[in-house]
Design a protein that fits this description.
With 72 residues, the chain is an alpha+beta fold. It has one domain. A 4-stranded antiparallel sheet has the order 1-2-3-4. About 7% of the residues have low confidence.
């Protein structure tokens, strides 16, 4: 039996905070879909949704979170 070991959620949050401060945006993998790499094997796919009323931050829709397998 194979058990996948996912990267730490704490590492994901730290990467998101660092990415917000970074001048370089992530590259889209498909139209409107962006990838985030936060650890050696940690990957996430996301897209931006319509803004939430009375909120200044972006509305992020998480599509997949995990390892390299999310690209299949």
């Amino acid at each position: 039996m194979h058990t996948a070991v996912l990267p730490s959620p704490v590492a994901l949050v730290k990467a998101l905070i660092a990415r917000q401060r970074s001048p370089s945006p992530s590259r889209p993998s498909e139209d409107g879909v962006f990838d985030l790499r936060w650890a050696r094997g940690g990957r996430a796919l996301r897209k931006y949704g319509t803004g939430v009323p009375n909120r200044a931050d972006p509305h992020i829709i998480w599509l997949r979170i995990g390892t390299y397998g999310i690209y299949r």
